[in-house]
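assembly run, all chains below
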Amino acid sequence: MRKEFRDSINTALHNPNLTGALGRFSEAYRISREKAYEGIDFEAVRTQIADRKGYAASHLDELADRFTQQIEARGAKVFRTDDPAKVREYILNLAQQNGVKTVVKSKSMASEEIHLNKHLEKAGIEVRETDLGEWIVQLAGQTPSHMVMPAIHMTKEEVDDVFSDKVEQGQAADIPKLVKFARGKLRTKFLCAEMGITGANIAVAETGTLVVITNEGNARLVTTLPRIHVAIVGIEKLVSEFADVVPILTALPRSATAQLLTSYVTMISGPVPNTDGTPKQLHVILMDNRRTEMSHDPKFKQALQCVRCASCLNVCPVFRLVGGHVFGKIYTGGIGTILTAWFDALRSSDEIQSLCIQCGNCTQFCPGKIDIPGLILELRRRIAVEKGQPLAQKAIFKVVNNRRLFHSMLRTASLAQKPLAKDGFIRHLPFFLSDMTEFRSLPAIADEPLRDKFAKIEQPKCTEKAAFYSGCLIDFAYPEMGESVIKILNKAGIEVIFPEGQTCCGAPARFSGAYEVAAQNAKDNIDAMLSEDVQYVVSACPTCTVALKHDFIANFESLGQTESLPRARELAAKVTDFSSLVKKLVDEGRLTFKEGRQLGKVTYHDSCHLKRTLNVSEQPRELLTKAGYEISEMYEADMCCGMGGSYSLKLPEISAPILERKLKNIKDTGAPLVAMDCPGCVMQIRGGLDKDGAEIKVEHTAQRLAEELE
Amino acid sequence: MLSTYLLETRNCLMQAIFDQFKLRAEAVSAEVHRFSSNTSALQFIVRYLQDAGVADSPDCYAVWADCPFLRTVDKKQVAALVPGLTFEVTREKAAAAKVGISQLDWAMANTGSLIQDAAPIERRLVSTLPNIHIAIVETNRLLPDMPAVFSKIRPEQTNYISFITGPSRTADIERVLTIGVHGPEKLIIVFVDDMAGVN
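ok done. output:
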């Protein structure tokens, strides 16, 4: 990671206007979005959008032809090109041929993608952004910090300064007055401009219609007053039928700004008369810029389903801290990272892709049903292939691929840490490692790992058997969690075995894009876990569970190692997370809770992979309630705790404030206990509360339940 | 007997759709009025223009785009009541007008939106440039939702269709909602139940 990138992150994190505005917005957004979707079946609408836009992405050529035919039949001119330079050239020629001195623009991301303004201005043409936020950013010489709200990072005082400096002295930091001022100043531009440039939110092939969605009324003026209208349209905006507009128009305003509909929706299907009665010149530019290539990529084709609502930015725990500027490009946030890799260059996404903590929150909100974290992981993999892994990382993974060496190093670490560890915590680390313990304590590595303890655990002999997959954290830091799981399963008449050959699940390698390393981990684990005939393979770590159940298969598939797939699938079928298995055993009457226990309040933290990949969130709550706890829900219970595996080591400056929010939400419930199903979350949250000094117990659900079952 | 029943059912249904429209439109800061006849609607509009300070001087004009509603209106008489009101809509007049008036084709209840074939330039000038837009719509043009509206509009037959939902707005500075940016800051919706002699 370059120093400049780290610096830009730190600048953003230390800008209270930015983090304050984005933080408050992300909180308000979830509530107002939910209200806007009242009475609407979001899943049904987004399935329709994904279906219609997915269809369009497979028929781009055909739809572009049909669109062109339709709109040209009514007198518009369509220019289709793959090359951004040709788009700039076309518009400049058009402007020069028609004596254009002033251009007014309503918001168009496609025009920003190709840096159109700079090109026209260099030729002496005045270009005015007219969307208020875009105009402010243009005047200030900045780039948008958010796709929908470009100037969200600025206070009214800063806007006042920009207006006073760049337009007219003596403005006031009063929002209605600033808006009125902008109206007045831009009105004269609308009236004198000879050319208007817009983007389009949708382009309908069937009818040759452009759909433009705005709130300020600027697009209506841009398409009405100047005698030339140029619409720059990325070809992914094409849909087949006019009826396809309905689901997009249902979701886009609700997801983008929590509105039932924006103030204006304009549908243009051909030239309209100018104010002097002559017909307007209408030019539609269908811009490709690698979109067709993207549609041929089996992984990235789905990114063309994006409707540019920016909800993936609004619900991202990282974006709300750093905002858009750290992305350094036009498209920001999760989807922006993916679009930048294509429209700019793969290597442009090298640093920004590392911002994704892989919590998956955005996948619940995306109206295009795009697996944004999955695609970012794929970028990471391709970058790792293109650049090769960093040397240090390579060395680490070499160790991780050698189980005996890896485990003996962990044992050595348990001895080496002795002087640093106190009552189970490491609170300070020396040298460059100190970042890791700056905002939370780390768990001391256990004196005796679970794999050594296991043989000494007395178990009843049963015919029904489960293999326990501990994962590194439970094995070496929290063996007591594993002991709780064994105790519970024994009570249900299930004997637990611990396959010795199990090793790291490969998630750290996978999340770093090192798929070969992860695949080797997968093979070792499949051999180990299938070595004995068992009914279940159970894990108490959701990240490991996801690896065993989904990622081993995905890994082999992306590496083309099809020969490993049958065994991976055989394993996946047996894998279950802890809470789902226990809930099943309770439902079957094989486990019963002690009668009449009143255990007081507990709050539950949803771990990312458990909630969003395994779809498990009610099971642990139900079990804790049955045990006698009263669940006191925390705010944003399913928001990431900032751990994200090695993320908290790579980007501790981002991990720390995410954790801080989580700790506040936990403390606000007043519960003396917080439960969760993931040892990684326990490590992060327990470490944070230890540093914080709060008297709140942090435990894995298994530890709580083990005591409360008959 | 049956026809009375059907008529009443229809009226009840229309009332429910109208109530939903009003609720939604007011939620986005539009004003909603309903009149039984042209005459009462016209009285309201004239009074509104007078109260809004429409006058025969720049920035105070009112511009009224040609529409079916005007077919039963004696324009000369109305213009005499409101100095500064013109039915000849030009770019210059509209840019210097305080109020613009037009008739819209459809109303969509579940979002409080109005829909118009806006290809004729004067329809756009009166609804984009002035501070206040008075939008006339026939009550029986109320439709429940977007699929219903999409079954009526024909993009292949008109080059410019506008959906208008409340006055223009922005939240671009500090996310504070501000009404009235480049478009109108007031949207006054006037429903007319019986537009006599028009259709």
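Chain A is about 50% helix and 10% strand.

Chain A has a mean pLDDT of 94.

not gonna interpret more than that til we talk
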